[in-house]
Amino acid sequence: MAPAAIVAALGWISLHQWERSAELLRREQARDMAAMAADKVTMALRVAEDRLLARLQATLAARGIDAAALDGLLAGAPLVRRLRLVDASGALLYPRSGAEAERALARRLHDAAGAPAGRRELALDGEDWLTLTLSVRGAGPVLAAIARDPDVLGREVLAGSLAASPATSLLVVLDARGRTVWAQAPLEGAEPLVSVAFRDALPSWRMAVYQPADDAPRAAVRRQVRLFMIAFVALLVVIVAGLVVTWRLMRRETEMARLKSDFVANVSHDLKTPLSVIRMFGETLEMGRLPDEARRREYYRVITREAERLTRLIDNVLDFSRIEGGRRRYDVVPTPVEPLVRETLDAFAYPLAQQGFKVEITVAPDLPEVPMDADAVGQALANLVDNAIKYSADDRVLAVDARVQDGELVLSVADHGVGIPAAEHARIFDKFYRVGASETQGRRGSGVGLSLVRHVAEAHGGRVTVESAPGEGSRFALRLPLEAARA
Ligand code: ADP
Fold first, then answer.
1. How many CB atoms neighbour CB 348 within 10 A?
2. pLDDT of residue 94
3. Stated pTM of the model
4. Which residues contact residue 262 at a Cβ distance below 8 angstroms, ignoring those fewer than 6 apart?
């Protein structure tokens, strides 16, 4: 988690730095673009104005201040919104007007223009004036001041010179009050990026670059950030999933280690009990302390029974280890069922009788021979019978039943013992698993019996089922197909 968090933090920081530098670069480019556009406009304006001024100079030189000629000139020059001619004393020469406002404007233009000079831009009351001193026939030098018509300027000069600019950003010309004079395309939510002044021509206007709402570099960066976030969340999910899986695996391994150590303790104990019985009975016999032939026979029987129990136990453990190692082979041949059932139960005759079990064996008549490994199935059945005895309660009943049902041979072993809670039904077939209830606590076992039964059933293409409830006994059924499935 810590490395992931560090990667995320670094990723986040570098994305932000990248976003900032992308923005800076964009601004820089926009500034260059605006400056270039401003230069282009200035040049175009110069050309148009030079042409106009040349005509004005020609008219003045030829005809003096001739209102009709000047009106005619202006009629053919829509770019000029106002033309004022002012003499050296600041008096208005053209247009002739007695209005005080006009005379005041003339004076201010005169004052602002200062000494006679070449072409000059003046900003007066938010309006740009182009001023120039011209010589007039019959009069001295005259100050000519021209105010441009922004509409015409926008329509003819700006549109003409800027139309070919690339359209990734929007070029916008703003007047002295920040109003849009001309825009390359409708603004529609575009944001201003940078603006530059038109240096000498149009001093109060600015050339601005807007970024269209949809094509902002920020949107691209935001897309990247979103992508990064998604990738990061996916990484987190993978890490968390990995943690959960590892934790569960670890828990399973710990549980398995505990079960294995329990298994070793249980098996050792199971082996010790019959061994000590055999030893005790053997020693008694050896010392000749039993003069009575019937008692001696009884002792021999006990030794044989305990030896059989030992053999069963060891077979179970060996088989289990063969199964675990994938080395268990089954020799499946058609086998009569009844002898198998009876032989298996015969091995338990003594403990059954000794513990006062009521035994009911029902083998359906005319059972066909069923393909099976007789040793393996006998061992599975023995495990079921052993459990039925081991987990019995006061009502000692053992019912073994063999019949054909739904096209399967069903060997069932039922008891009236402690029973198994439904929640445990699935797990009791797992290796080493033993129900932890108090009823089964005192009874020794290794926890591999039922896993062996299930393995035998599945190796024959069959299965093992259980019906049981606490206090109501259990019925285990080994179900084998009547036709050979797989060896
Ligand atoms: P174990 O050596 O403990 O008997 P098994 O694999 O044979 O191992 O059985 C697993 C568990 O299933 C047992 O520990 C026991 O709790 C439960 N069990 C098996 N058979 C019976 C039964 N007939 N009655 C009640 N519980 C049983």
1. 23
2. 84
3. 0.56
4. 432, 434, 447
